[in-house]
Amino acid sequence: EPEVTQTPSHQVTQMGQEVILRCVPISNHLYFYWYRQILGQKVEFLVSFYNNEISEKSEIFDDQFSVERPDGSNFTLKIRSTKLEDSAMYFCASSEDRTIYFGEGSWLTVV
Amino acid sequence: AQSVTQPDIHITVSEGASLELRCNYSYGATPYLFWYVQSPGQGLQLLLKYFSGDTLVQGIKGFEAEFKRSQSSFNLRKPSVHWSDAAEYFCAVVLATAGNKLTFGGGTRVLVKP
Question: What is the pLDDT of residues A14-70, one digit of tens each?
């Protein structure tokens, strides 16, 4: 069964450092997303991406965040200068219609 | 305010017993409805979805959910729980007018007693 894959599964980074989280969406999907889940809180929408541009973003997705589809298979989330409050599980997801499929997540710990 | 509510934070159930997880939403129109499961150390796996039609939907792993418009609910059920069902379960909705942005409930953690 096709699946969304994410790397790394866990990353520890120093505050202020740049982090790139990588994702390979399901191959025939056209919509891509990032969500995050801070420990003990709800899963929150960050951004959606379609046709090589952001289609929607939340208030959380400020100038510190960016997304990119650098080639035909990868989808990345970059956090330019990490803060302690960026520590969370980041989920990549993809869809071809209303049904969204998630990856296993990347735990980001900012110290 | 528009929201998705899962009233039960934790549920403990004996193996072999039935399970029902509650989900309520408050939106003006009927959204698209989903249940996801997150096993320990795993990602979010889609269990089932409701878009329209038959209000009782079947999913994977023996789960089903019933959409009740009058109660704005989409409760998840399983007749006989297995130890492997211990996980966190999330109800989520997409508004037809909100692109594909999922809004999640707070989750219900299910513990299974032997």
Answer: 999 999 999 999 998 999 999 999 998 899 999 999 989 999 999 999 999 999 998
Chain B interface test: which of A29, A35, A100, A107 (most B C-beta within 10 Å): A100
CA distance A21 to A75: 9
Residue whose tokens read 């939403």: B25
Q: Do B100 and A95 touch (CB under 8 A)?
A: yes
Helix (H, G, I), strand (E, B) or coil at A61: coil
| Closest chain B residue to A47, measured at CA | B101
Residue B22: what residue type? R
Contacts of B39 (CB under 8 A, 6+ apart): B45, B84, B86, B87
| Three-state secondary-structure class, residue B14 | strand
Give how far Cα B113 sits from Cα of A91, B17, B89, Å: 30, 10, 17
Alpha carbons A84 and B103: distance in angstroms, whole number:
24
Rounded Cα–Cα distance for residues B25 and B74 (Å)? 8
Which residues neighbour A29 within 8 Å (Cβ) at sequence distance 6 or greater? A94, A95, A96, A101
SS3 content of chain B, % helix, strand, coil (to 5): 10, 50, 40
pLDDT band at residue B31, thresholds of 50, 70 and 90?
Answer: confident
